[in-house]
Write a structure and sequence with these properties.
Layout lengths: L2 H14 L3 H16 L4 H13 L21
Helix pairs in contact: 2-3
Protein name: Antitoxin
Organism: Paraconexibacter antarcticus
Length: 73
């Protein structure tokens, strides 16, 4: 196992995604999704969509659960 090669690959991936600031933004976005409302499947879909956009540029929030319409007056 070549640790230097592994470290170089990790650095390359971080640089491709926008650097460490982008990673921190991605982490914050994933934490928001995980703490939000919705099913695990909805959260997983939102997290996958969020990771497609490096650096949390999209500000994707987890989808909200459907709500009943207000009662008619």
């Amino acid at each position: 196992m070549n640790l230097k090669k592994l470290a170089d690959q990790a650095k390359k991936v971080v640089d491709q995604r926008g650097g460490t600031d982008a990673l921190k933004a991605d982490l914050a976005e994933l934490q928001t999704i995980a703490k939000g409302k919705g099913s695990a499947a909805d959260k997983a879909k939102a997290a996958a969509a969020a990771l497609k956009d490096p650096g949390a540029k999209g500000g994707t929030a987890p989808p909200k659960a459907p709500q009943d319409p207000p009662p008619a007056a």
